[in-house]
Amino acid sequence: MDLKRFSFARQILPATGAAVAMALLSGCATMSLTNLTPSSLPENPSGIYTFTLRAMPKSVNVVQQTIAPHVVVGEQSHEMKRSDAIPGIYEFDYKLPTGQSSIGYYYLVNYQVEGNGALDNREAYTEVYHAAVVNRYVLSLEVNRGPVGARIGVLGRGFTPQDLVGFDGTPVRTVYESPTSLGFFVPALAPGRSYKVTISSAAGNSVVGSFRIDSSEVTVEPASVNLAPGKKQNVTFSIGHPAPAGGLLLDVTTDVPESVIMPEVVVPEGQTSATVTIQGGKPGSGSLFLKGYGSGEVSVPVAVAPGR
Q: Where do the domains of the chain lie, and which CATH numbers do they carry?
């Protein structure tokens, strides 16, 4: 194949008239070309990536045995092999040079058309495509639904401690476990609906899938908390079902953070309650809040008064 001639034809195509365009694109009327190579290629240890093309005749006059697809990468043309499993599919395994992470390529197909007792040589080609080799990709969520506070795993490759999981674009509490495992806690958002889950980092955003937040109930005993500065009181948080694998984080917030000193509340895996010790800080009054439960929010009055 004369690559220089073909390259010249591609350069002049945008600047020429309709007659030249028709001459160059004559193959399009008799051959359909579909690129089946994804634009993102997961990195693999061998550094070999497969180009896949579907080349289907659009005319009964195309001589099947003469169809000869090539993938052109840079200035190199590579002959593609016909798939034994699927008709019309052609493949080529390309060894990516060391240090390269992107590939520009196009397909060129030579074939013959029979007509009036003679064979006519034709060629068809595609636009230029680009593929990027990525060292991070997401396989799946461990589960696709759960209550607020549940710890959910994400399986994939290339995770870093800087990765953040987001629900509809809002970052949520994320736990880096390993380059192949990431975790997050279901945020205190409105239950009964699904949210788009993404992973964001300096390299960009990756869509993980959708996650449905299920409604759940939580009760707090005592129903209100009254303390003096420095005094302590146990408070028990109970849920209506055993906590899932990894435990259930109850995201307790308050509007008087200087008055309430308390640890995180995590119901252990398989348990239905957790008891924590709350200590009084500066005098003040307000509430403890748990969003995403019951009708949307659970509120527990809390007061810290001197001399109690």
A: 3-134 (2.60.40.10), 137-214 (2.60.40.10), 218-304 (2.60.40.10)
Please tell me whether the overall predicted TM-score, pTM, comes out greater than 0.70 for this model: no
Contact in structure between 236 and 275 (CB atoms under 8 Å) = yes
- Provide the token pair at 63: 């001589």
Categorize the per-residue pLDDT at 27 as very low, low, confident or very high, splitting at 50, 70 and 90: low
158: number of Cβ within 10 Å: 17
Which strands make up the sheet holding 31-35, listed edge to edge? 31-35, 48-57, 89-95, 81-82
Give me the torsion for CA of 93, 96, 102, 106, rounded to 10°. Answer: -40
> CA 111: distance to chain centroid?
40
What pLDDT does residue 145 have?
93
- Between CA 92 and CA 110 the distance in angstroms is 16
